[in-house]
Amino acid sequence: MMKVGVYFKKSCLDDDRYVDGVKSVLAGHDIQPVFVSKPAEIKGFEVLMVFGGDGTMLAVASECARRGVKLIGINYGHIGFLAEFEPDKLGEAADMICSGNYALQQRSMLKVVYRQKEYFALNDLVIQRCTSGNQFSNTITLRASIDGSVVDNYTADGLIVSTPTGSTAYSLAAGGSVLTPDIDAFIMTPICAHSLHSRPVVYSDKSSLSLIRTDSRGAINVVIDGVTVDCADDIGEITVTKADYKVSFITPLESDFFNKLLIKLNIWSK
What we know:
The chain is an alpha+beta fold and 270 residues long. The chain is 19% helix and 39% strand.
């Protein structure tokens, strides 16, 4: 029997009937599910099935990449762009895992060095003005340099640095371009820039990006894959490079990125 890790979003895990139903379906496909409740428990698996939305997938992506565990998502979120299957297709997903009849899509990650600590992001790094309480700030100014050359001084609500995976998330909503998963690039997108010339910049993922604050107008939030890691007036220098490892997503052999993009964003499908 194949040993597969299973990770649930909390609302699913609290539903015993749902969990029992998943166990039954997987057992019927000769899969022994091993349930994990936190990323640190992800070890010893070839595959991790994630039941949840994009936030749930992001929570485990870095650990899976570090340990060489393949990811497959069953969507129980709002959009679920990172998930390949809807809940009623669980049986198909199980068949695909057991047969090995699937493709592997390798997705790059950001390595963010902030205050001498390393963070990893499958989607994005967001540096933005604080909008709460006494730490409220108006616009902030960030100097962005790539490989030592100044790109721009952005006066804006903030700045998004995203991978191709993250280019369909916050960056897209802020006016950034869509990058296909196989492209070797990152995108830097200003948030509500107070300028007529500040536009998204796509740059090689082999480069090193440096971000430095040049104003002192209140606190700044540093957010990595949707999680705020700090709120401070002085953020020092933040450097962003490509991580040494990638996330391996299991996808159907006939997976169509553009059709999925159109369907998930509720536009139309072919």
